[in-house]
Amino acid sequence: MQDFYGIFNKRAKCLMLAAIGLTGLSLPLTGQILISLESAMEIAEKNSPSIQRSLLNIEQYQYSLVAERASLKSRFSLTLNPFNFSNNRQFDNQFSQWFTNRELYSSGTLRVEQPILKTDGTIALINSLSWRNNRTEIAGFGENSNQAFYNNLYLSINQPIFTFNRRKMQLEELELNYENASLNYAIQRLNLEKTITSQFFNVYLEQLNLDIAREELANTTNNFEIVRNKVEAGLLAEEELFQAELNLANAQLALQDSELSLANAEEAFKREIGMNLDEDIQLSTDLDVREVIVDLDQAIAYALDSRMELRQRQISLEQSQFDLVRTKAQNEFRADVQLTLGIFGDNESFSRVYDNPTNNPSVGLSLNIPIFDWGERQARVQAQEVSIRTQQLELSEDQKQIRMEIRQAYRSIQTQMPRIDIAQKSVENAERTYDINLERYINGDLSGIDLERFQNQLSTQKVAYARALINYKTQLLDLKILTLYDWEKQEPVSVALPNNR
């Protein structure tokens, strides 16, 4: 009896040490970084290459949009020619005479131009000031010279008619490109959340496997001591000790394999979120789950109203409509109206330039009239219309696909809670079965091979239970991404877009 008391005391000590070791696994060691799923997402958002590319794409379109809007404001420009001198010998065909022209002039032009977004026209106020010293020597006629200031101030209006508004369309396209880039960022962020969650729980499972492997090693070590004491006391055959040694070796090898798998999973996880591979991490998570009620009709309605992929498809359709307008504008009937109103003055004295001004209005109309293009324009328009119908069909199919995916996710979620309950009961049954058979093993009524089988069964059920919990959380995340609605918090998903306009 004293031997058995000694055996039980050793077993109790081993189990206590194992419990202390497992408890230590849940607490970060000195120098370890404790990471939750939320903090992992924060790190990944700052360091993920895909997120960085999306942000750069947004930044590019944002600058283009800022530039386009700036181009709609008044433009001020000043052109200066401070000095220009020429001395030319030329022949006049009308008078059959050679003449020499010497010219010295300076000029400057101030231009204020304002685009008109609503009409795609342009209005400009222009003032051109110059000083000119001109001298001409004509053989047989003597010499003529002129030195004066000249100023031309006029208002110019240019308005295309019978065509589409190109400036307005370009602005709308840039706005759609910016919105599309923002949607891409939001989609990338949701995909990143799914990837990080998967990697996070993968590391968690590996840590759980390591905990179980350590527990198995503690149990196997304790069982080995029991068998060895019994063999030494002549209560068991020596073959049982050989099997106990083999079980101990297998448990030690399983622990090494679990450590290796955990190291690989942690490095893959740290690489994914952008951490240094040499940093030591410990995951912090709560796998407690509660049943979440999902309304299928509401889920489909949320998805059809909020899914960013559908909005992107609509943006693509709008851009195709723009392409159709451009296609119809090929070989189009178009007119341009030009109108200028101004006064011109010249005088030797700058202050008296407008003593005797001259009005110089002008108006012009230019027409582009296509006559025959062999059906080119009509064929191009029809091709673009077919492309639009194709995209409309794809939009309809996308909506059907979304409905189908949500229904599948909904059906899968409905089966998860029963699976979790079954997995939990399986763990409880496996624990009771292991405890019962451990007593039988201690009493010599069960072989070491059979006890190892019950130990493996318990470990398998623990992992299966953890996987059932993870599957439920993962499928809730999938439904959240599919519907853009957080069913656990009962609130819409708000994806913050950076650098909002």
Automatic annotation (TrEMBL):
Pfam families assigned to the protein according to its UniProt record, in alphabetical order: OEP
Source species, domain of life: Bacteria
Keyword set, alphabetical order: Cell outer membrane, Coiled coil, Membrane, Transmembrane, Transmembrane beta strand, Transport
Major location category of this protein: membrane
Parts forming coiled coils: 164-268
GO molecular function: efflux transmembrane transporter activity; porin activity
GO terms under cellular component: cell outer membrane; efflux pump complex
Record's subcellular location: Cell outer membrane
Homology family: Belongs to the outer membrane factor (OMF) (TC 1.B.17) family.
Full protein name: TolC family protein
Originating species: Flavilitoribacter nigricans (strain ATCC 23147 / DSM 23189 / NBRC 102662 / NCIMB 1420 / SS-2) (Lewinella nigricans)
Lineage of the species this protein comes from: Bacteria, Pseudomonadati, Bacteroidota, Saprospiria, Saprospirales
